[in-house]
């Protein structure tokens, strides 16, 4: 192959993934790609034997062992800072690539010949069913799985398998660490789309994903289930992404409508579930976080919007107008939070 340094850096954020890592890393080692690949693993202060597994079975992987738990966003930022490759693939420890995945991603990157964010169709680990071909968004920034094989350009691709040119990642400042986890991929792709950078889910390969194995939730198994922490981060971070990324004046009436509906949703579901903790930990903090620090978020919005070159038509082309939560409740009932 002849390269003196890696062209592709595969970055795997790990926390207590001892039982997941082998499938993930083996899938990277089995890649059929004519390029040198490095593997970087950030271990986020795991309490299991992840580090021992990495040391004994995967000495070729570069391991960043954090002495404290810093979260998904910081873990990925650290790995990309340490990466050598021109291109980075963020890969969840609960995911595994098909053998031709890196080859397909690299070919599309070279075809585009410019900055882009890419992913592959996601398939459920257990059932083998197609989960999405990237995601569209509803007006309140809830993800709507794209299942259309004819559509490649999407609103965002999830961080479980996200390909990005390292230079673009650095220009966009990576994942915002104030998000901690959940929604950081949506935010990064939003920043890219505002700059007219393609965000695309391509054909030619796939990956399998144990949805929710690394952080709970994210699956529909006989009903909607999640955790308090996941829901709290999700509602907060989607709201802030709406405020910061939505171009033009529609951001403000949309934010007001969203906060009003979110409070109504929280009050109703908390009453139906007889769960005051749900209101206290998930819904009530969102307006306080947004409105209590509005100067901070407005300043960030102005900085982000100053780089905008997309048109409203291009921006909203990745949105569906039926609120996603309504369709989910209609199909699966009121969500259960544990």
From TrEMBL:
UniProt-listed SUPFAM superfamilies: Nucleotide-diphospho-sugar transferases
InterPro entries noted in UniProt: Glyco_trans_2-like (IPR001173), Nucleotide-diphossugar_trans (IPR029044)
Protein name: Glycosyltransferase family 2 protein
Gene Ontology MF annotations: glycosyltransferase activity
Similarity comment: family membership: Belongs to the glycosyltransferase 2 family.
Keywords in alphabetical order: Glycosyltransferase, Transferase
UniProt cross-references to Pfam families, sorted A to Z: Glycos_transf_2 (PF00535)
Segments forming domain Glycosyltransferase 2-like: 9-110
Organism: Luteimonas deserti
Keyword set includes Transferase: yes
